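Project standup — Tuesday

K.O.: blocked on the structure for the chain from last sprint. Re-posting the sequence here as requested.
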Amino acid sequence: MTVESGPDALPATASPEVEFISLTHTTASTELEPIPSRGIDLPFVRRYVRALEDGGFDLTLLPYGSGSADSFVLASAVGQLSDRLKPIVAVRPNTVFPTVAAQQLATLDQLTEGRAVVHLISGGSDAEQARQGDYLPKAERYARTSEFIDVLRRSWSETGAFSHDGTYYRFDGFGPGFPPYAAPIPISIGGQSDAAFDIGGTKADIFSFWGEPLADIRSQIERVHAIAAAAGRADRPRIWVTFRPITDRTDELAWAKARDYAERISHTFQSGAYRKRDQGAPQNVGSRRALEFARRQEVYDRALWTRTAAATNGQGASTALVGSPETVAAAIVDYIDLGASLVSIRGYDNLNDVIDYGRYILPLVRQELAHRKATGRRGALQADHPGALAAAGRP
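H.V.: unblocked you, prediction finished:
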């Protein structure tokens, strides 16, 4: 891809391609309309996975929580329900020994013919970690994750037995472990603490961010890449960004929907009907950053909206992109221009949003990238759909 000057020139940082991620839900319950349930709605899961595949998504995250369904088992099911989706298994290192996790992930990779990805969660809440007997302080949790990564990779690559005597794990004569299908399984890290950046920049294949203003994401990407360079890496971690788009036929309709959604989400979290809203200041840096952005202003750049983050007290990925499909697609391309090559979009009306994203947003982004590949220059998408960048576009 060539990079030239002029208003339609491509930034040097622009990713030439993108893969889209969503999150697999196990019931029809949403933050807008919570449905009390502690089980799995299997027909819904089948329909949801089919909608992801039909919509053109490339990967799907199987999240992990102390009270949720097991992410490994769900990933295996998704791998068999889909012919193409790559399951991303969320794993907390406190819940499984690394040699066992390596075996589980390699088995998943074999069953899906090379589609497995793992996302390691060090743990941002002391209370949530304690629910499963983990009392390490946060700084040590990241150090444990670093050692976990080392053991994973050795378990997949060593051709003979090996032993390990580390700070958090010890074993003798393991291996050779069960191998992945072909290539090494990609390892993803997320977080906003210094420890997260150090481990992610040094060791991760993918570094994950929640949706933040463009200027802030740019500086965070530069930080990750600088750490990777200082570590002597020839490559750089792929960048993954996550948003919760709220879209409608026009920008005006989308903003009206967004304001309604924020009120409903706030009520849901305050009532504890979906997930109890933590009242105190969050422990993890990412949530604190999300709340700080929300305190500063509600709308950033073309379409980023922070009121949904405030409504949940910064719990999880909760910043929205608001606008017509064209405006949201243009906003996604803004992040691709900064180097994001993995974009996660999941909505608040889970199944219906996945269907709409597949019909109206993913094709627009891919059409823009195809134009760039063919011409070496931007298409008209970003220029024609300024969203909140235009004074009249602000709600």
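K.O.: great, moving the ticket to review. The radius of gyration is 21 Å. The longest strand covers residues 86-91.
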